[in-house]
Amino acid sequence: MAVIIDNDVIHEVFGDRPSFIIFRDWLFGKNYAKLAYGGTLKTQILKHRKYLKALKELERAGKILDVPRADIRSEKKGFECNSDDQDTIAIIRLKGIRLVSTKDKDLKKDLRRNRLTVPERRRCKRPSCKADCRVKIYNEINGHELLSRYGRCEYI
Fold it and tell me: Are 69 and 87 in contact (CB under 8 A)?
């Protein structure tokens, strides 16, 4: 399962914030977890030089899903969103991402618009989760529940 960590929470996930220890352990663990990024999101994340070592470690473990800029650019033509995170929405649409960690209010509003984030061609093919293919927002309160429910999913 691929996840997106938005630029506004990267310091909490890779820093020493206790509420994100479970998320960090899950991301670095031996499972299907991958960090998806690309385009503007990748540029923003890589500016945090403090966390480059952690990102390199994920890359060596094969846990980075780097989406090419050309794919993002062509996907962005198919929708309009309220937030300034068009690249993030494009990655979600392209790769079927269902878990995003962010504190951006405008992005959260866009993520709640199911037609925006889950195009018809990317509907989940697993019968057990057909009714629940919306994007979930990871935060300190619901994080443990989300990872226990969706963290073992290998579908990307």
Answer: no
Decide: pTM greater than 0.85. Answer: no
d(CA 138, CA 33): 14
Distance CA 119, CA 93 (A): 6
Tell me the CATH number at 138: 3.40.50
Strand runs labelled E in 78-156: 99-101, 136-138
φ/ψ region of 62 (left if φ > 0, alpha if ψ in -120 to 50, else beta) reads left
* Overall number of domains in the chain: 1
pLDDT in tens, 22-39: 888 888 988 888 999 999
Asked if residue 155 has pLDDT above 80, the reply is no
Q: Which secondary structure element, helix H or strand E, spans residue 127, and what is its range? A: none
| Domain range for 29 | 2-150
Q: Cβ distance 137 to 8 under 8 Å?
A: no
* 7 token code pair: 């630029």
